[in-house]
Backbone:
């Protein structure tokens, strides 16, 4: 099984989890799939793509943030690392709301 890695910074990619095409975000570095919210463990710091774990990161929960909209917490299925990141403008809001109920 070969998982496609994010290419550098804000370019489009195919989601390793749901297989859908993800377009570049435009205003920031794309961190996760807007369709299923899963991510890949490829960053040490957001957007740097310098982590070689490459595991799939599951969206665990989301919390509303007064300044940033929503913050999503991901956990890596491979190494167990957790990471918090900002939801993107085109994320599936219904999924995010569902995740806020998990927190
Ligand atoms: Zn996806
Ligand atoms: Zn990992």
Residues:
């Amino acid at each position: 099984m070969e998982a496609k890695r994010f290419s550098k910074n804000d370019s489009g990619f195919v989601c390793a989890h749901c297989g859908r095409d993800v377009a570049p975000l435009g205003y920031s570095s794309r961190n996760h799939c807007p369709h299923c919210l899963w991510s890949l463990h490829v960053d040490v710091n957001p957007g740097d793509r310098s982590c070689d774990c490459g595991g799939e990161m599951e969206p665990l929960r989301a919390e509303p943030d007064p300044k940033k909209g929503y913050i999503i917490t991901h956990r890596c299925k491979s190494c167990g690392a957790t990471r918090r990141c900002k939801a993107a403008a085109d994320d599936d809001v219904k999924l995010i709301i569902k995740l806020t109920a998990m927190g």
Remarks:
- The pocket of zinc ion (ligand 2) is lined by residues 41, 53, 55, 76, 78-79, 81 (CB under 6 Å).
- Helices lie at 93-100.
